[in-house]
Specification:
This protein is an alpha/beta fold and 387 residues long. The chain has a five-stranded parallel β-sheet. Strands 21-22-25-24-23 form a five-stranded antiparallel β-sheet, sandwiched between helices. A four-stranded parallel β-sheet has the order 11-10-9-15, with helices on one face. Helix 1 runs parallel beside helix 9. The termini are far apart.
Protein backbone atom coordinates (compact mmCIF):
# COMPACT_ATOMS: atom_id res chain seq x y z
CA UNK A 1 0.00 0.00 0.00
CA UNK A 2 1.32 3.44 -0.93
CA UNK A 3 1.26 6.30 1.55
CA UNK A 4 0.96 9.90 0.38
CA UNK A 5 1.80 12.45 3.06
CA UNK A 6 0.82 16.14 2.95
CA UNK A 7 2.59 18.47 5.36
CA UNK A 8 0.54 21.63 5.73
CA UNK A 9 -3.18 21.40 6.50
CA UNK A 10 -4.32 24.61 4.86
CA UNK A 11 -6.39 25.15 1.73
CA UNK A 12 -3.73 23.78 -0.63
CA UNK A 13 -3.18 20.67 1.46
CA UNK A 14 -6.89 19.97 1.97
CA UNK A 15 -7.63 20.41 -1.73
CA UNK A 16 -4.73 18.14 -2.62
CA UNK A 17 -6.16 15.41 -0.37
CA UNK A 18 -9.60 15.88 -1.92
CA UNK A 19 -8.18 15.65 -5.44
CA UNK A 20 -6.21 12.50 -4.66
CA UNK A 21 -9.46 10.78 -3.69
CA UNK A 22 -11.40 12.22 -6.63
CA UNK A 23 -8.71 11.00 -9.03
CA UNK A 24 -9.04 7.47 -7.71
CA UNK A 25 -6.12 7.18 -5.27
CA UNK A 26 -7.35 4.56 -2.80
CA UNK A 27 -4.34 4.11 -0.53
CA UNK A 28 -3.31 5.96 2.63
CA UNK A 29 -3.41 9.78 2.84
CA UNK A 30 -1.92 11.51 5.88
CA UNK A 31 -2.56 15.25 6.25
CA UNK A 32 -0.43 16.92 8.94
CA UNK A 33 -1.07 20.45 10.25
CA UNK A 34 0.73 22.48 12.89
CA UNK A 35 -2.40 24.45 13.80
CA UNK A 36 -5.04 22.87 16.06
CA UNK A 37 -7.80 23.68 13.57
CA UNK A 38 -8.83 21.52 10.66
CA UNK A 39 -8.06 23.13 7.25
CA UNK A 40 -9.71 26.50 6.69
CA UNK A 41 -9.62 29.37 4.20
CA UNK A 42 -7.72 32.52 5.16
CA UNK A 43 -9.42 35.34 3.16
CA UNK A 44 -12.40 35.61 5.58
CA UNK A 45 -9.96 36.27 8.42
CA UNK A 46 -9.28 39.77 7.10
CA UNK A 47 -12.70 40.26 5.49
CA UNK A 48 -16.13 38.96 6.52
CA UNK A 49 -15.13 36.99 9.61
CA UNK A 50 -13.03 39.82 11.04
CA UNK A 51 -15.98 42.16 10.65
CA UNK A 52 -18.44 39.68 12.14
CA UNK A 53 -20.35 39.16 8.87
CA UNK A 54 -19.73 35.41 8.77
CA UNK A 55 -19.70 32.62 11.31
CA UNK A 56 -16.61 30.66 12.23
CA UNK A 57 -17.96 27.44 10.70
CA UNK A 58 -18.03 29.09 7.26
CA UNK A 59 -14.24 29.27 7.00
CA UNK A 60 -13.54 25.53 6.92
CA UNK A 61 -12.62 23.76 3.69
CA UNK A 62 -14.43 20.56 4.65
CA UNK A 63 -16.59 19.35 7.49
CA UNK A 64 -14.93 17.33 10.23
CA UNK A 65 -16.81 14.26 8.95
CA UNK A 66 -15.37 14.64 5.45
CA UNK A 67 -11.90 13.52 6.56
CA UNK A 68 -13.31 10.42 8.24
CA UNK A 69 -15.61 9.58 5.34
CA UNK A 70 -12.79 9.96 2.80
CA UNK A 71 -10.23 8.11 4.92
CA UNK A 72 -7.90 11.08 5.23
CA UNK A 73 -5.80 10.73 8.37
CA UNK A 74 -5.92 14.36 9.56
CA UNK A 75 -3.44 15.14 12.33
CA UNK A 76 -3.78 18.67 13.65
CA UNK A 77 -1.69 20.47 16.25
CA UNK A 78 1.34 18.46 15.13
CA UNK A 79 4.40 20.05 13.55
CA UNK A 80 6.71 18.29 11.11
CA UNK A 81 10.29 18.82 12.25
CA UNK A 82 12.36 17.13 9.57
CA UNK A 83 12.09 15.48 6.17
CA UNK A 84 14.45 12.53 5.66
CA UNK A 85 14.69 12.26 1.89
CA UNK A 86 16.92 9.19 1.90
CA UNK A 87 14.51 7.30 4.15
CA UNK A 88 11.30 8.71 2.64
CA UNK A 89 10.04 9.75 6.06
CA UNK A 90 8.86 12.81 7.97
CA UNK A 91 9.87 13.33 11.59
CA UNK A 92 7.14 14.85 13.78
CA UNK A 93 7.24 16.95 16.93
CA UNK A 94 5.74 14.14 19.02
CA UNK A 95 8.80 12.02 18.28
CA UNK A 96 7.08 9.79 15.74
CA UNK A 97 8.24 9.07 12.22
CA UNK A 98 5.81 9.01 9.27
CA UNK A 99 7.00 7.12 6.16
CA UNK A 100 5.82 8.24 2.71
CA UNK A 101 6.00 7.18 -0.91
CA UNK A 102 5.14 10.67 -2.15
CA UNK A 103 5.29 13.89 -0.12
CA UNK A 104 3.61 17.25 -0.65
CA UNK A 105 4.92 20.25 1.29
CA UNK A 106 2.24 22.92 1.63
CA UNK A 107 3.46 24.69 4.76
CA UNK A 108 2.38 28.17 3.65
CA UNK A 109 3.92 31.32 5.04
CA UNK A 110 4.27 33.12 8.34
CA UNK A 111 3.85 36.89 8.96
CA UNK A 112 6.98 39.01 8.98
CA UNK A 113 7.29 40.39 12.49
CA UNK A 114 8.63 43.50 14.14
CA UNK A 115 9.94 43.87 17.70
CA UNK A 116 7.38 45.10 20.20
CA UNK A 117 3.77 44.39 21.22
CA UNK A 118 1.56 44.06 18.14
CA UNK A 119 -1.26 42.03 16.62
CA UNK A 120 -0.80 39.95 13.47
CA UNK A 121 -3.42 38.36 11.24
CA UNK A 122 -2.65 34.92 9.88
CA UNK A 123 -4.53 32.29 11.89
CA UNK A 124 -8.12 31.94 13.05
CA UNK A 125 -6.87 32.55 16.60
CA UNK A 126 -5.23 35.79 15.43
CA UNK A 127 -8.53 36.82 13.84
CA UNK A 128 -10.56 36.09 16.94
CA UNK A 129 -8.21 38.03 19.20
CA UNK A 130 -8.12 41.02 16.87
CA UNK A 131 -11.90 40.99 16.32
CA UNK A 132 -12.50 41.13 20.06
CA UNK A 133 -9.98 43.94 20.45
CA UNK A 134 -11.46 46.03 17.63
CA UNK A 135 -14.93 45.61 19.09
CA UNK A 136 -13.70 47.48 22.16
CA UNK A 137 -13.06 50.56 20.00
CA UNK A 138 -10.27 53.05 20.51
CA UNK A 139 -7.37 53.92 18.24
CA UNK A 140 -5.43 51.60 15.94
CA UNK A 141 -2.13 51.94 14.11
CA UNK A 142 -1.72 49.61 11.14
CA UNK A 143 1.88 49.14 10.03
CA UNK A 144 1.90 48.38 6.32
CA UNK A 145 -0.47 49.47 3.53
CA UNK A 146 -0.55 45.91 2.21
CA UNK A 147 -3.70 43.96 1.32
CA UNK A 148 -3.88 42.60 4.87
CA UNK A 149 -3.08 46.03 6.31
CA UNK A 150 -5.76 47.84 4.32
CA UNK A 151 -8.41 45.18 4.90
CA UNK A 152 -7.65 45.39 8.62
CA UNK A 153 -7.88 49.19 8.47
CA UNK A 154 -11.30 48.91 6.81
CA UNK A 155 -12.46 46.43 9.47
CA UNK A 156 -11.21 48.73 12.23
CA UNK A 157 -13.09 51.69 10.76
CA UNK A 158 -16.23 49.55 10.48
CA UNK A 159 -15.83 48.84 14.21
CA UNK A 160 -15.67 52.58 14.90
CA UNK A 161 -11.96 52.78 15.66
CA UNK A 162 -9.68 55.67 14.77
CA UNK A 163 -7.10 54.35 12.30
CA UNK A 164 -3.64 55.44 11.19
CA UNK A 165 -1.71 53.51 8.53
CA UNK A 166 2.08 53.73 8.39
CA UNK A 167 3.72 52.75 5.09
CA UNK A 168 7.26 53.30 3.72
CA UNK A 169 6.08 53.38 0.10
CA UNK A 170 4.81 56.49 -1.69
CA UNK A 171 1.20 55.26 -1.67
CA UNK A 172 -0.91 52.22 -0.84
CA UNK A 173 -0.16 48.89 -2.56
CA UNK A 174 2.64 50.49 -4.56
CA UNK A 175 4.48 47.25 -5.32
CA UNK A 176 1.28 45.31 -6.01
CA UNK A 177 -0.55 47.78 -8.27
CA UNK A 178 1.77 50.67 -9.07
CA UNK A 179 1.21 54.34 -8.19
CA UNK A 180 -1.95 55.00 -10.21
CA UNK A 181 -4.14 52.26 -8.75
CA UNK A 182 -2.44 52.42 -5.38
CA UNK A 183 -3.66 55.98 -5.10
CA UNK A 184 -7.24 54.83 -5.78
CA UNK A 185 -7.07 52.78 -2.59
CA UNK A 186 -5.37 55.61 -0.72
CA UNK A 187 -8.21 58.00 -1.65
CA UNK A 188 -10.76 55.39 -0.59
CA UNK A 189 -9.25 55.08 2.87
CA UNK A 190 -8.85 58.83 3.30
CA UNK A 191 -12.52 59.20 2.40
CA UNK A 192 -13.34 56.86 5.27
CA UNK A 193 -11.27 58.80 7.76
CA UNK A 194 -8.03 56.84 7.79
CA UNK A 195 -4.88 58.87 8.48
CA UNK A 196 -2.31 57.64 5.93
CA UNK A 197 1.38 58.22 6.67
CA UNK A 198 3.39 57.35 3.57
CA UNK A 199 7.17 57.50 3.22
CA UNK A 200 7.85 56.48 6.81
CA UNK A 201 8.42 53.32 8.82
CA UNK A 202 7.74 52.09 12.33
CA UNK A 203 11.10 52.50 14.07
CA UNK A 204 9.77 51.27 17.40
CA UNK A 205 6.53 49.69 18.63
CA UNK A 206 5.66 50.23 22.28
CA UNK A 207 2.72 49.62 24.60
CA UNK A 208 1.44 53.11 23.82
CA UNK A 209 1.93 53.25 20.06
CA UNK A 210 4.64 53.70 17.44
CA UNK A 211 7.73 55.86 17.04
CA UNK A 212 8.16 56.67 13.35
CA UNK A 213 11.45 56.84 11.48
CA UNK A 214 10.87 60.60 11.30
CA UNK A 215 11.02 60.76 15.08
CA UNK A 216 7.31 61.47 15.48
CA UNK A 217 5.46 59.43 18.10
CA UNK A 218 1.93 58.18 17.41
CA UNK A 219 -0.18 56.93 20.29
CA UNK A 220 -2.73 54.15 19.93
CA UNK A 221 -4.58 51.51 21.92
CA UNK A 222 -3.25 48.74 19.68
CA UNK A 223 -0.86 48.19 16.78
CA UNK A 224 -1.46 45.75 13.93
CA UNK A 225 1.44 44.75 11.69
CA UNK A 226 0.81 43.72 8.08
CA UNK A 227 4.15 43.86 6.24
CA UNK A 228 3.99 40.66 4.27
CA UNK A 229 4.82 37.05 4.97
CA UNK A 230 7.82 34.75 4.64
CA UNK A 231 7.39 31.27 3.14
CA UNK A 232 7.91 28.36 5.53
CA UNK A 233 10.83 26.79 3.67
CA UNK A 234 12.69 25.43 6.70
CA UNK A 235 11.70 21.80 6.22
CA UNK A 236 12.72 21.84 2.58
CA UNK A 237 15.96 23.73 3.13
CA UNK A 238 17.07 21.50 6.00
CA UNK A 239 16.28 18.42 3.93
CA UNK A 240 18.52 19.65 1.13
CA UNK A 241 15.82 20.53 -1.40
CA UNK A 242 16.46 23.48 -3.70
CA UNK A 243 15.13 26.68 -2.16
CA UNK A 244 15.00 30.28 -3.40
CA UNK A 245 12.30 32.74 -2.36
CA UNK A 246 10.23 29.61 -1.85
CA UNK A 247 10.63 25.88 -2.47
CA UNK A 248 11.78 25.64 -6.08
CA UNK A 249 9.69 23.42 -8.35
CA UNK A 250 9.16 22.78 -12.02
CA UNK A 251 5.91 23.51 -13.87
CA UNK A 252 4.45 20.28 -12.46
CA UNK A 253 5.14 21.45 -8.87
CA UNK A 254 7.84 18.78 -8.43
CA UNK A 255 10.80 19.81 -6.27
CA UNK A 256 14.46 18.87 -6.80
CA UNK A 257 13.56 15.42 -5.41
CA UNK A 258 11.27 13.39 -7.72
CA UNK A 259 9.02 12.16 -4.90
CA UNK A 260 8.54 15.52 -3.19
CA UNK A 261 6.17 18.26 -4.37
CA UNK A 262 5.25 21.74 -3.15
CA UNK A 263 2.09 23.85 -3.44
CA UNK A 264 0.49 27.03 -2.13
CA UNK A 265 2.30 30.03 -0.66
CA UNK A 266 5.52 28.10 -0.12
CA UNK A 267 6.04 26.99 -3.73
CA UNK A 268 8.17 28.98 -6.16
CA UNK A 269 7.29 27.22 -9.37
CA UNK A 270 8.38 27.67 -12.97
CA UNK A 271 5.51 29.39 -14.75
CA UNK A 272 5.61 28.58 -18.49
CA UNK A 273 3.43 31.56 -19.42
CA UNK A 274 5.85 34.04 -17.86
CA UNK A 275 9.02 32.07 -18.50
CA UNK A 276 10.24 32.49 -14.92
CA UNK A 277 9.65 31.26 -11.42
CA UNK A 278 6.79 32.77 -9.42
CA UNK A 279 5.60 32.61 -5.85
CA UNK A 280 2.02 33.77 -5.23
CA UNK A 281 0.49 34.28 -1.77
CA UNK A 282 -3.17 34.43 -2.72
CA UNK A 283 -6.22 32.26 -2.15
CA UNK A 284 -6.64 31.22 -5.79
CA UNK A 285 -3.11 29.83 -5.93
CA UNK A 286 -3.70 27.65 -2.89
CA UNK A 287 -7.08 26.58 -4.28
CA UNK A 288 -5.65 25.47 -7.64
CA UNK A 289 -2.05 24.46 -6.91
CA UNK A 290 -3.07 21.84 -4.33
CA UNK A 291 -5.11 19.87 -6.89
CA UNK A 292 -2.41 20.37 -9.56
CA UNK A 293 0.23 18.97 -7.20
CA UNK A 294 -2.01 16.01 -6.36
CA UNK A 295 -2.40 15.12 -10.04
CA UNK A 296 1.35 15.47 -10.48
CA UNK A 297 1.94 13.11 -7.53
CA UNK A 298 -0.28 10.58 -9.31
CA UNK A 299 1.89 10.79 -12.42
CA UNK A 300 -0.31 13.08 -14.49
CA UNK A 301 1.13 15.36 -17.15
CA UNK A 302 0.65 18.60 -15.24
CA UNK A 303 1.54 22.08 -16.43
CA UNK A 304 0.52 24.57 -13.77
CA UNK A 305 0.18 27.88 -15.61
CA UNK A 306 -2.74 29.91 -14.18
CA UNK A 307 -3.15 33.64 -14.57
CA UNK A 308 -2.60 34.91 -11.00
CA UNK A 309 -5.86 36.07 -9.40
CA UNK A 310 -6.93 37.68 -6.15
CA UNK A 311 -9.73 39.80 -4.78
CA UNK A 312 -10.49 42.25 -1.99
CA UNK A 313 -13.47 43.96 -0.38
CA UNK A 314 -12.88 47.28 1.39
CA UNK A 315 -15.77 49.58 2.35
CA UNK A 316 -17.91 50.04 -0.78
CA UNK A 317 -15.15 48.77 -3.09
CA UNK A 318 -15.08 45.20 -4.31
CA UNK A 319 -12.54 44.17 -6.88
CA UNK A 320 -10.88 41.25 -8.64
CA UNK A 321 -7.36 41.35 -10.04
CA UNK A 322 -5.84 39.12 -12.72
CA UNK A 323 -2.28 39.01 -14.03
CA UNK A 324 1.09 40.30 -12.91
CA UNK A 325 2.11 43.95 -12.59
CA UNK A 326 5.82 43.29 -12.87
CA UNK A 327 6.60 45.37 -15.91
CA UNK A 328 4.18 47.74 -17.67
CA UNK A 329 4.29 51.04 -19.49
CA UNK A 330 0.73 52.38 -19.18
CA UNK A 331 -2.64 51.84 -17.53
CA UNK A 332 -5.84 52.14 -19.56
CA UNK A 333 -9.23 52.61 -17.88
CA UNK A 334 -12.76 51.73 -18.94
CA UNK A 335 -15.57 53.19 -16.87
CA UNK A 336 -15.42 55.74 -14.08
CA UNK A 337 -12.54 55.69 -11.62
CA UNK A 338 -14.14 58.54 -9.67
CA UNK A 339 -17.33 56.49 -9.17
CA UNK A 340 -15.35 53.33 -8.34
CA UNK A 341 -16.91 51.42 -11.19
CA UNK A 342 -14.26 50.62 -13.77
CA UNK A 343 -11.81 48.17 -15.29
CA UNK A 344 -8.10 48.99 -15.29
CA UNK A 345 -5.78 47.33 -17.81
CA UNK A 346 -2.00 47.31 -17.40
CA UNK A 347 -0.26 47.25 -20.79
CA UNK A 348 3.27 46.42 -21.88
CA UNK A 349 4.09 47.07 -25.54
CA UNK A 350 0.37 47.20 -26.28
CA UNK A 351 -0.36 43.82 -24.66
CA UNK A 352 -2.53 43.38 -21.57
CA UNK A 353 -0.43 41.96 -18.72
CA UNK A 354 -2.95 42.55 -15.91
CA UNK A 355 -6.48 43.73 -15.33
CA UNK A 356 -8.54 44.80 -12.34
CA UNK A 357 -12.32 45.03 -12.31
CA UNK A 358 -13.70 47.32 -9.58
CA UNK A 359 -17.40 46.99 -8.69
CA UNK A 360 -17.80 45.46 -12.14
CA UNK A 361 -18.56 41.77 -12.30
CA UNK A 362 -18.52 38.73 -14.59
CA UNK A 363 -15.57 40.02 -16.61
CA UNK A 364 -12.66 38.04 -15.14
CA UNK A 365 -12.75 35.40 -17.89
CA UNK A 366 -12.63 38.12 -20.54
CA UNK A 367 -9.70 39.86 -18.85
CA UNK A 368 -7.78 36.63 -18.42
CA UNK A 369 -8.31 35.69 -22.07
CA UNK A 370 -6.82 39.04 -23.09
CA UNK A 371 -3.79 38.31 -20.92
CA UNK A 372 -3.41 34.76 -22.23
CA UNK A 373 -3.71 35.83 -25.85
CA UNK A 374 -0.63 38.05 -25.73
CA UNK A 375 -2.19 40.03 -28.57
CA UNK A 376 -1.53 43.69 -29.21
CA UNK A 377 -4.76 45.48 -28.30
CA UNK A 378 -6.04 48.85 -29.52
CA UNK A 379 -6.06 50.99 -26.37
CA UNK A 380 -9.14 52.87 -27.64
CA UNK A 381 -10.98 49.58 -27.88
CA UNK A 382 -10.03 48.82 -24.27
CA UNK A 383 -11.14 52.19 -22.94
CA UNK A 384 -14.43 52.52 -24.77
CA UNK A 385 -17.74 50.69 -24.60
CA UNK A 386 -19.87 49.51 -21.69
CA UNK A 387 -18.46 47.76 -18.67
Amino acid sequence: MATYVIVGAGLAGAKAAQTLREEGFDDEIVLIGAEPERPYERPPLSKDHLQGRSERDSIYVHSAEWYRDNRVDLRTGLRATRVELDKHAVRLADGSRQPYHKLLIATGATPRRLPGPAYYLRTVEDCQALKERLAAGGSVIVVGASWIGLETAAAARAAGCEVTVVEPGPTALHLSLGPELGEVFARLHRKHGVDLRFGTTAAEITETGVRLSTGERLTADLVVVGIGAAPEVGLARDAGLDVGQGILTDAALRTSHPDVFAAGDVAEWFHPRYGRRMRVEHWANALHSGPAAARSMLGGQVVYDPVPYFYTDQYELGMEFSGDVGDYDEVVYRGSVADLEFIAYWLKDGRVVAGMNVNTWDVVDEIQELIKSGAVIDRKELSSGPI
